[in-house]
Write a structure and sequence with these properties.
By secondary structure, this protein is an alpha/beta fold. It has 39 helices and 16 strands. Helix 25 (540-556) crosses helix 26, helix 28 runs parallel beside helix 30 (652-667) and helix 38 runs antiparallel to helix 39. The protein is elongated and about 110 Å long.
């Protein structure tokens, strides 16, 4: 690989030398001896009036070979390929492509003048010249593609023939532009980041947008601090250096300095002198740029569109703006710069620190939210120290402010991440304290979208501001325009790294004088407690809001937070969050939350407090959902005894507890005990609460289940029909309670031999549960299981098998391999498979070939 540059001064040439890029594989520089093909090519270039510059002319740099390769090719005027029989070295990061083929592709894409010479099959030489044991097929395919590229291919069989034909071809390339006006490139683009990773899609989008053909196309790269806007603009400028005669970098954070930076470009282009006023210099510059093309001006870290608009050049060049502010619609097209995609983060971490495994790199990237500056800083630190991954993550959790304050000058970024965000926080504190308060509260929630409606539940002045649409619009606009948070019409979100920095900054703040408990941690819990949705239990309309606040609730109530002054609120929120998860069909995730809520209430209020006993009942319900019937029964027996002692036998909570215990007994096969308890509870509920109360209807359902398990199907059917009618009238056809009654009634009909009616009711119930609860909810899977049973009874074995297979797969995933419901599905499927050719599968599922459901 060689690059031919300008001829040396004083050699007396009438026209400057052209820059010729020689693309070849290494063996062509050594063979044949004594004069190799590359030596002959150098002679031809010199004879044509062009000087040769090889790799030795480039000083040592912190750059990879592929980066230097691209840079030199971008600066060349003519591309020459000498294609032999060896494919060459694969490109790092693109092992399927060699450097020579990549160079040919770049030259083709950029429209460079190309001269292609192919060694003829009659060429003589040693095996190192004419054989490629590793990539011979790739090279042959490449050689065969060259004629299809539309070029005239010249075959040569010796260095002498190459020298003659190359010199002749170079002399035929027109020199008119260079003879009349030599190109003098002007650039002050900062050095590129050698470890620049990924962003290929972004850079392609930027290039395509700039090359639309519109005059002075303006593209605004916008995003939060540390996301890589500046490094992306620098990389673009270097990748496309050959496309611009003028490439100028304008630091724009201070609007007062933009004019002077543009005036410096005017001087570099010999359009003004140092004594000229900046206004005069910039006027001349804008006039010159308007009349020419092939220029690029980058306004880095601009903040206000109004300050930049009067200074933007016009013409056929390109303008790139980098900014935290996304509002550039009146000037140019906005191109958001987001965090790294996870593979980009992992690639950067593992490239810089090769001791990292894929899994470790993924953990670090996740902890840093794929923020490019933070990922790059982590890669540097891990590569240059003995820090383990575990220790780094520990420091990230405990000392993020100190960790992100580390700054390596070689990193290509003027400030550490901590310093950059500290400046932003300080500016916001001066300009808009209400916005900083809102941002701080958001920082003490999870790094997920925060519903704006939740923030209206703040107390004091902050709440007044949040509830005033105009005042709160000023707050969110300030955060959005400074790129400090992502704001939509419904949510606000702060990235996890600046959020952690802001938490570290405000951890010791006392918000109310003389109240040591008025910390941000406490305020966050109080906000969630005040803004929690309605009771989630069997209440689908509330589930969407619970899903929105769930990550924030779990984050604010994490055991590492200093929320002890509001421990009661934390216990309540944990219990409600667990109830949401349980009723949505995720009892496994709900379990540790129920356990935490119970322990907190027990320690705070005592074991006999009604709230503590309620937590015990909820925990028992979840354990029953998970198939742990013995543990559930122990908790429920204890809870019922405490409720009777504290609240009395007829209190609604006592009656609900009795129903829970009866359900445990039923699952344990103690059907008579369950019926006795349920019938007593049902009688008390009707007397205390009335026939149509929801708790009375739950009790009616339980009594019907007792009849069913005892084989009293007609009595079960009568009670289930009555309960279903009452629930439809009270809460509608799609309420989860109504669907439970419909499911149970279908079971009664099936046992009574009314298979068609059972199938119709089960099909309707399954469709409604899918729509209301989702396809993987345990209740939905119960309906699917029951419908399969109807189909078997009706002789539709194939449909039953298909439904049982799907249900078994879902129950394994949702409930686990050993849950009783999962085992029931496996048993049913084994029954379905008792057909010729399926006996082996049946034995795998159920070695005892038990009967179906």
């Amino acid at each position: 690989m060689l690059v031919v540059g300008e001829s040396a001064e004083g050699q007396g040439r009438k026209s400057p030398a052209r820059r010729v890029f020689l693309s070849h594989t290494s063996e062509l520089a050594e063979w044949p001896k004594p004069r190799s093909f590359v030596a002959a090519a150098k002679d031809a270039v010199a004879a044509a009036g062009d000087a040769v510059v090889d790799m030795s002319a480039f000083t040592a740099r912190d750059a990879t070979p592929e980066e230097l390769d691209r840079e030199m090719l971008a600066e060349a005027d003519i591309y020459v390929l000498i294609a032999g029989f060896r494919y060459g070295t694969p490109v790092r990061g693109r092992p399927e492509v060699s450097y020579t083929e990549q160079e040919f592709g770049i030259a083709t894409a950029t429209g460079m003048e190309r001269l292609v010479f192919v060694l003829d099959k009659d060429t003589e030489g040693p095996p190192a010249l004419i054989q490629d044991l590793d990539y011979g097929r790739r090279q042959e395919a490449f050689r065969q593609r060259l004629p299809d590229s539309g070029l005239t291919i010249t075959k040569v069989s010796s260095p002498a023939e190459l020298a003659t034909k190359l010199e002749r071809a170079l002399n035929r390339v027109p020199r008119s532009l260079q003879e009349s006006k030599p190109v003098r490139r002007i650039s002050n683009i900062p050095a590129r980041t050698v470890t620049f990773t990924g962003r290929d899609e972004l850079l392609t989008s930027l290039r395509d947008a700039l090359c639309t053909g519109q005059p002075a196309v303006v593209q605004a790269l916008n995003g939060m601090g540390g996301v890589g806007k500046t490094t992306t603009a620098i990389e673009y400028a270097h990748r496309h250096a050959g496309d611009y005669e003028v490439a100028w970098w304008v630091p724009s954070e201070d609007p007062d300095l933009i004019l002077g930076n543009l005036a410096a470009l005017a001087q570099a282009m010999d359009l003004s002198a140092s004594q000229d006023l900046p206004d005069i210099a910039v006027a001349r510059l804008r006039g010159e740029l308007e009349s020419r093309g092939r220029w690029l001006v980058v306004f880095d870290n601009a903040e206000e569109p109004t300050a930049l608009r009067p200074l933007l050049p016009a013409g056929d060049g390109h303008v790139i703006i980098t900014s935290r502010n996304p509002d550039w619609d009146d000037i140019g097209a906005a191109l958001p710069v987001r965090e790294f995609a996870r593979p980009e983060s992992v690639q950067l971490l593992r490239t810089r620190c090769d001791r990292l495994t894929e899994s470790d790199a993924d953990r670090i990237a996740d902890a840093l939210g794929d923020l490019p500056l933070a990922v790059n800083q982590a890669a540097r630190l891990l590569a240059t120290t003995s820090l383990t991954v575990e220790k780094y993550l520990e420091l990230l959790d405990e000392r993020i402010h100190d960790l992100m304050a580390r700054h390596e000058q070689s990193g290509g970024y003027p400030l550490s991440l901590t310093a950059a965000w500290t400046v932003s926080f300080d500016q916001l504190a001066r300009d808009n304290p209400a916005a900083l308060n809102t941002l701080t509260l958001v920082a003490w929630l999870a790094p997920e979208p925060v519903p704006l409606g939740l923030l209206t539940h703040q107390q004091g002045d902050a709440g007044v501001t949040a509830r005033d649409p105009l005042a709160f619009a000023d707050v969110t606009t300030a955060l959005r325009s400074r790129g400090m948070a992502e704001v939509t019409t419904a949510t606000i979100q702060l990235h996890r790294v600046p959020a952690a920095l802001l938490r570290a900054r405000t951890r010791g703040d006392i918000l109310t004088e003389n109240d040591p408990n008025s910390t941000w941690q406490v305020i966050a819990v109080q906000l969630l407690d005040a803004g929690q949705p309605d009771d989630p239990w069997n209440n689908p309309p509330s589930w969407a809001r619970w899903q929105e606040i769930l990550p924030h609730l779990l984050f604010a109530c994490d055991s590492h937070r200093a929320w002890q002054p509001v421990a009661r609120e934390v216990a309540h929120l944990l219990d409600r969050a667990a109830s949401y998860l349980q009723t949505r069909g995720d009892p496994r995730t709900a379990l540790p939350l129920f356990q935490r809520a119970y322990v907190l209430r027990r320690d705070l209020l005592g074991i006999d407090a009604p709230a503590t006993v309620a937590s015990a009942c909820n925990l028992a319900l979840d354990l029953r959902e998970l198939g742990e019937y013995e543990r559930a029964c122990e908790l429920d027996e204890d809870a019922l005894a405490r409720y009777k002692r504290v609240l009395g036998e007829n209190h609604p909570d006592t009656l609900a507890s009795a129903s829970n215990l009866a359900a445990d007994l039923r699952e344990l096969g103690e059907y008579e005990r369950a019926r006795e308890l349920d019938e007593d509870t049902f009688t008390r509920c009707k007397r205390v609460l009335g026939d149509d109360h929801s708790d009375t209807l739950v009790s009616a359902v339980n009594v019907a289940l007792d009849h069913w398990f005892l084989g009293e199907y007609e009595r079960a059917r009568e009670l289930d029909e009555d309960t279903l009618a009452r629930r439809k009238r009270d809460v509608g056809d799609d309420h989860p309670g109504t669907l439970i009654s419909a499911n149970n009634l279908a079971g009664d009909l099936r046992e009574l031999g009314e298979y068609e009616r059972a199938r119709e009711l089960d099909e309707d119930t399954l469709a409604r549960r899918k729509r209301v609860l989702g396809e993987n909810h345990p209740d939905t899977l119960t309906s699917a299981n029951n419908l399969a049973g109807d189909l078997r009874k009706l002789g539709e074995y194939e449909r039953a098998r298909e439904l049982d297979e799907d249900t078994l797969a879902r129950r394994k995933r949702v409930l686990g391999e050993n849950h009783p419901d999962t085992l029931t599905s496996a048993n049913n499927l084994a029954f379905d498979l008792r057909e010729p050719g399926e006996s082996e599968r049946a034995r795998e599922l159920d070695p005892n070939t038990l009967a179906g459901q």
